[in-house]
Every structure is written in structure tokens, then in C-alpha cells.
């Protein structure tokens, strides 16, 4: 799997390291109307724009987990995402081996620099599917008042947090990772308990490129 971005000029950007997971959010839009003496009612207003989110990092040095050898400079890669975020033009997002091939706007990307990993730049990216504006007929007040008498459905936002992950680097150990990520090297056992399937029977034999789930 590879993640591609094509801007309006046809320039291609390929993310050097695949994320642990890609989340696609689809939801229904609702408008809340307050009716005197009856309370609040939610009415569906159409499908909301889909959001595609994922997290990864730009490594300073090529490693076996990278998609290609000629990886971009992390700061230059970050600036490319910043430029696409600031642009008013949609970009095409293609994720190979998946059905994702859509025009999107880069809604946000957050950057993180971690101690002990000089040069690497971590990021969280949110893309929203782009579509042309459509003109809708304004609903008459009488129609809105009539609709307020119908049974409403409440849409609740998904507040489940995505588990934090760590990519094993050369020279890492579980105690070192526990010290960097959890602030206490003695918490390595908690990391191992969550990742026994990935690591195997020997906690001392972690390998570069492995994605480890961090305790919350």
C-alpha cells in the first residue's frame, strides 16, 4: 500500500512511511431547531463531508520500513503538506490497494518533534472529501414548523480515542521505549503485554519497523 497526493499542477507526493491505520469517517448531517415549549429537535440535512485521517512520520534516514529509498527531507515534506493545506485547490488522494481515489482538501496537519529522535518529524493529517457547491431551495418556515412535530434521531459523535503507536528504531529496547514514551523504563512490561503477538515470546527481540501499541 502507498499513499499518493497529486496537487492541481500534477505534482506527486508519496508518503515515505505507511501509517498504522487509516480512518474514514462517514456521518449524517443534522440541524438542531428549538421549538418553544417542545424543546430541541434534530433534523437530517444530508450527508456530511467524509473525513480521512491517519498518522505517520517523515524519517530523517532511510530504513527498511520506508516505501522507497529516495525519501524527502522531513522539513521539506512538512512544508509540502503546509502548502497543500493553505491552498484553496483540492488535491487528489490515492491509497493503493484500497478504494480511496478522491479529491480532498487537506483540512489540518499537526506536527510533532520527539526528543531522542533528531530529524524525524511526526504528523497527524486530516483530509476532507471535496465536492462542488450546490444550491438548495430554502425551506419555508411553515414546512420547518411542520417537520418539528416529527420524531427526531440524535447523532452522537464517536469519542473513542485512537490508540497511540510507536515505531521501533534500530537500537531500541522495550525499557528505552518505556522511558521515552511513558517516562518510566520499568513500564516496559505493560508495552510487552499489549504487543506479545507482534514481538513474540522474547521481549528482548524487538525489530526495527515494528509498530507497538502504547499503554493509555
Automatic annotation (TrEMBL):
InterPro entries: Bact_Kbp, LysM, LysM_dom_sf. SMART domains: LysM. Residues 164-214 form the LysM domain. This is LysM domain-containing protein. It comes from Paenibacillus antibioticophila.
Amino acid at each position: 500500500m502507498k499513499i499518493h497526493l497529486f496537487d492541481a499542477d500534477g505534482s506527486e507526493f508519496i508518503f515515505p512511511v505507511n501509517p498504522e491505520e487509516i480512518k474514514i469517517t462517514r456521518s449524517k448531517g443534522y440541524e438542531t431547531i428549538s421549538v418553544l415549549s417542545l424543546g430541541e429537535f434534530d433534523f437530517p440535512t444530508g450527508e456530511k463531508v467524509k473525513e480521512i485521517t491517519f498518522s505517520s512520520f517523515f524519517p530523517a534516514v532511510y530504513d527498511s520500513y520506508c516505501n522507497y529509498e529516495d525519501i524527502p527531507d522531513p522539513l521539506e515534506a512538512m512544508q509540502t503538506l503546509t502548502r497543500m493545506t493553505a491552498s484553496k485547490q483540492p488535491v487528489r488522494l490515492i491509497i493503493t490497494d484500497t478504494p480511496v481515489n478522491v479529491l480532498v482538501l487537506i483540512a489540518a496537519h499537526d506536527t510533532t518533534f520527539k526528543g531522542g529522535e533528531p530529524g524525524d518529524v511526526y504528523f497527524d493529517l486530516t483530509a476532507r472529501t471535496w465536492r462542488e457547491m450546490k444550491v438548495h431551495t430554502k425551506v419555508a418556515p411553515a414546512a420547518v414548523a411542520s417537520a418539528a412535530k416529527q420524531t427526531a434521531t440524535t447523532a452522537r459523535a464517536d469519542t473513542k480515542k485512537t490508540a497511540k503507536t510507536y515505531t521501533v528504531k534500530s537500537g531500541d529496547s522495550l525499557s528505552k521505549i518505556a522511558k521515552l514514551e511513558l517516562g518510566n523504563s520499568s513500564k516496559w512490561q505493560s508495552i510487552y503485554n499489549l504487543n506479545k503477538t507482534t514481538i513474540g515470546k522474547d521481549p528482548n527481540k524487538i525489530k526495527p519497523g515494528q509498530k507497538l501499541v502504547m499503554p493509555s
